Amino acid sequence: MNKIGFNVLAWSAEISENLFPILDRLKTIGYDGAEFFIGGTDEKACRAVGDHCKNIGLEVTTVTVMGPDENPISPDPQVREKAKEKLLGILDRAADLNSQVLCGPYHSAFATFASRAPIEDEYNWSAEVLNSVADHAQKLGVLMTPEALNRFECYLANTMEQLDYLLAKVNHPNVQAMFDTHHANMEEKKLSLAIEKIAPRLGHFHISENDRGTPGSGHVDWNETFATLKKVGYKGWLTIEGFTRNDPAFANSIGVWREFSAPWDMAENGYKLIREIGEKHGL
């Protein structure tokens, strides 16, 4: 079966030894890996958490975002250069964690808009930034998987069609696509068609309910999703990403204003859902 992961952002955006008990319990539940957010985390903390995961048998994936001061699609070449520098640093921290994947909407700055549709220059600028750091990521053993987001958080890539268009411009084997069912639930006409569209480039997959609560508690069609993943031969991670207000600063930054589900409810019941429906569809 595909490996199953859980994003610890349900508890905290911080990477520190405070996560050790959480990681231990995730391993006990049966998870194959944990996913961490890389912001301004230092090397020492990443190495400590990465070593702990290795010691208990948890693999690692990571996620990050870009801000307006390092926007890969800024018309200012100096800002785009800062984007490259930031991504290189983030990739180094991902390697410190022993991360296999760096996912997230780092093709452009999070929740930063131009009050118009994306233009060709922006796709080209984003592709150039991503391509420029892809060799470094490949040397570190970190697969880059940019993510399409909903229209309220991004305008460059909302759909798999747009993400596919961008990645064709990047044209690097170490830059693939990420699919998140929460965003696709808002932006795609049909989950199965969207998965089939991006399948040749699909490198990472987030299992996320429509409201970011416990998978299976909302209206995402998991049978359709898993059946299509089987159809296209997807072999990568199935990682749950759900949010809470457990870390208020992070919650405020992404517009999480209420509790959707308790973290351990997401972790325990989400794992059961993936195992049951995954086995049903042969994943």
Automatic annotation (TrEMBL):
Q: Which domain of life is it from?
A: Bacteria
InterPro entries per the UniProt record, alphabetical: IolE/XylAMocC-like (IPR050312), Xyl_isomerase-like_sf (IPR036237), Xyl_isomerase-like_TIM-brl (IPR013022)
- Provide this UniProt record's keywords sorted from A to Z: Isomerase
Q: Which GO terms describe its molecular function?
A: isomerase activity
Q: Name one Pfam family in it.
A: AP_endonuc_2
Q: Does the keyword Isomerase apply?
A: yes
Report the transmembrane regions from the record: none
- Xylose isomerase-like TIM barrel domain mapped to chain residues: 23-252
Instruction: Spell out the protein name for this chain.
Output: Xylose isomerase
